[in-house]
Amino acid sequence: MNFLLFEQFKLGELLGTGPFEAWGEEEVRSSVSEAYRFAREVIGPLNATGDAQGCRIENGRVITPEGFKNAWTKLYEGGWKSIAVDPEWGGAGAPHTLQIVIEELMSGANTAFMMYSGLTFGAAEVIEHFGTDEQKKLYCEKMFGGTWGGTMCLTEPQAGSDVGASRTTASKNPDGSYTIRGTKIYISGGDHDLAENIVHLVLARVDGAPAGTKGLTLFIVPRIKPNADGSLGEFNDVLLGNIEHKMGINGSATCVLNFGEAGTCVGWPVGGDAKVISIHRRRTHKQHVFYARFVDVRDQLPDFVAEIFGIFRSHFWRNIDHERCRTLEKTRDIARNFFFTKLDQIRLNAAGFKCF
């Protein structure tokens, strides 16, 4: 990773200049090393726990696997999710490339756990870049700091890749808010016990808006309505319907969410404009890069585990005498395929970094 950062991407040319004036090569290398330690010692051991226990529902809320809450607290206390965030919102202002390196280490250690903070970060970024000044002040610091979680609510039972088929509605109220009604499915981190509040970014169609994607608006819909001072107010009629299964990430709560069953769920358009589907499109493109990195690091895990297993097998250093095994060992095509597989992993890493 240090090779990619300093030799391939010439990160050193940015350090010590402009917004990165406080960052030098030593700080970056130290952050990567410490992130690796944190991933190995704190997050990694919870991977098996999360897979074995999964998430469960108690009293209408998701309970995450044992140890997740403590790890969440340490993740944010250590500043790992805000290392590249603007200092205005409590971040360290590091190059975003460093954030991606850290994400790779930690997601590789425990993808299911890191999905909660990944969606939170993405939702916070949307508000940071497109929200009103009031929305930024109310949500950004708490979300980047892990006090509040976040999600992106797009998919519906009849609207998957065809997002324009969304039936979730938004009716304007006299105070400028909108009453939200609808159901969203496959919502990663849709409910959990890790944060005090969860801020959902919900695609909905304002009454009278045209059909298709052009008629959709992105709304801020917190599970609990915040007061103007940032304290928590009333429950916002966002109900957990169920936990859905996604193979390999039992520790991540993939949820069905019902908005406005009692007619009291309200939301506010991101940026105050009720015609901002382009905001979601832009965020979705970036989120795809994050998901690609999740896939990349998970693809590397079997290779890593197999390598460690092979090294510590009792006969690893012994000569292979069986003729068929010796033939296999000497087959250059097989060796070359393994080598190119590793190169592909490095290439994918590099492509991911360049997107930022």
Question: How would you explain this protein's 3D organization?
Answer:
- It is a single chain.
- With 356 residues, the protein is α+β, with helices and mostly antiparallel strands.
- The chain folds into three domains: 2-55 and 65-144, Acyl-CoA dehydrogenase/oxidase, N-terminal domain (Butyryl-Coa Dehydrogenase, subunit A, domain 1); 148-282, Butyryl-CoA Dehydrogenase, subunit A, domain 2; 284-354.
- The chain has ten helices and twelve strands.
- It has helices spanning 2-8, 25-43, 46-53, 68-77, 96-109, 111-130, 133-144, 277-312, 323-330, 332-354, and strands at residues 56-58, 61-63, 148-153, 169-172, 178-188, 197-206, 216-222, 224-226, 232-235, 238-244, 254-259, 266-269.
- It has a five-stranded mixed barrel. Strands 1-2 form a two-stranded antiparallel ribbon. Strands 8-9 form a two-stranded antiparallel ribbon.
- Helix 6 runs antiparallel to helix 8.
- The mean pLDDT is 85.
